[in-house]
Write a structure and sequence with these properties.
The chain is mostly helical. The chain is 50% helix and 0% strand.
């Protein structure tokens, strides 16, 4: 990011910074599968469909429950009003996790 800001993959996913996400994933072969599930959850929360699709294609867990809430990507996308992400998640067979509040 500009001005020397340092980001982590979960920040990049939530913001949809596709170039940064792709660069990080390509540079770190261990970033595959379940290591991408938290950033995938953040992409869904942030309404970043392209980032979610990219991370899912590399093995992120479609139904990963956030340890702090039990919410799946589908739960958080619905809560955040991300209808395009919700539709895509449902098309791919996503399920609800533990419902909060």
């Amino acid at each position: 990011m500009g001005r020397g800001a340092k980001t982590q993959l979960w920040h990049e996913a939530a913001l949809g910074l596709m170039e940064a996400i792709a660069r990080r994933v390509k540079a770190t072969p261990s970033l595959r599968g379940t290591h991408l599930s938290g950033p995938f959850w953040n992409a869904c929360h942030g309404g970043q469909l392209a980032a979610a699709q990219y991370l899912f294609a590399r093995g992120a867990d479609l139904d990963w429950p956030a340890p702090w809430s039990g919410q799946t990507p589908l739960d958080i996308a619905e809560q955040a009003g991300r209808s395009n992400v919700v539709a895509w998640l449902l098309e791919n067979g996503a399920i609800h996790g533990k419902r909060s509040g």
